[in-house]
Amino acid sequence: MSPIHQVQFHTSFPDTSAAIDRRIPEFAPAHISDEDKYFRNHEPPAYLPEIEKEIEQFIQFHKENTNRRIVLVTSGGTTVPLENNTVRFIDNFSAGTRGATSAEYFLENGYAVIFLHREYSLLPYSRHYSHSTNCFLDFMTENNGKIEINSKYTEEMLLVLRKYNQAQANNTLLLIPFTTVNQYLYTLKSAAEKMHVLGSTALFYLAAAVSDFFIPKSRLSEHKIQSSATVDGQLQINLSQVPKFLSRLVDNWAQGAMFVSFKLETDSNILIQKATTALERYHHQLVIGNLLQTRKNEVVFVTPNDSHWIKLTEDEIKDHIEIESRMIPEVIKHHSEWITQHPN
């Protein structure tokens, strides 16, 4: 039995060769010139050709052998390095819970998953233990000099193990890492271009927390910023806006696919309005809105035609039901309708 395919790159290693008012309008979407300018001025990760090969083989396998739908799930936050030889960086708040959990439910519903994730963030299946409040040793016990699973956790762990083994046997999960926003953008673009051959059966589930701002490579300090570089004890950093490539993703990189993006806010009064604006601006089919304070218990689905909430009941919350178990079947329903309306 072959293991789940984890591409072996450590994206958190630097490439040595080379407070916002949310009520204001969103930045305008990037134009072709913005896209060209970014990729012209920023080099791709050195490992990108190998990742492209892995993605292409994964897509070809399922296209020729299983006819499964393929979903690209993005997960976790991107970093913005402050130096080329990176010591300091700006990070985004995200452990990858939404993406890793959603990926599991896509797999359970027959999809093959390309999981584009922040390195060392939560992963499907191992998420149940890797970031647990319990030490992993708490799941084990000793019996006659041998290690065994603590009987208290046996049933739950067996269920997770069986699902993991099924994903292994069916070759339905491809793990692709990123760390920086530049790595994310290049890998997303490459993956989308490879998935173009799938047409409407391809699904993009964009749950990653992507940085809004970055420091262009031309302005990066080569080495660690010294404390002597401060002015009156203050470090001043000028950040540029990350071009909004989502419309290019829809219109150019993967035409015909269905796109689901997320809108996280902290103000309930603007959530649906922000989600609707994003839907119209980037030509997506579905935007899932959630509030930081209640994101684990309720979300709102915003489509061109309507909006409706999915909320866990008090009993479901007490029973530790994951809201993704309700979300993903609903997303799949929308995807099936999209395929019907746009046959390949």
From TrEMBL:
What InterPro entries would the database entry show?
A: CoaB-like_sf, DNA/pantothenate-metab_flavo_C
One GO cellular component this record assigns the protein to is: CoA-synthesizing protein complex
Kindly give the Gene3D superfamilies that the UniProt entry links to this protein.
Answer: CoaB-like (3.40.50.10300)
Q: Which domain of life is it from?
A: Eukaryota
Q: Which residue numbers delimit the DNA/pantothenate metabolism flavoprotein C-terminal domain?
A: 196-306
Alphabetical list of SUPFAM superfamilies matching this protein: CoaB-like
Q: One biological process GO term for this chain? A: acetyl-CoA biosynthetic process from pantothenate
Q: Which Pfam families match?
A: DFP
Tell me the GO molecular function terms: phosphopantothenate--cysteine ligase activity
| Similarity field | Belongs to the PPC synthetase family.
Q: Which PANTHER family match?
A: CORNICHON-RELATED (PTHR12290)
What is the recorded name of this protein?
A: DNA/pantothenate metabolism flavoprotein C-terminal domain-containing protein
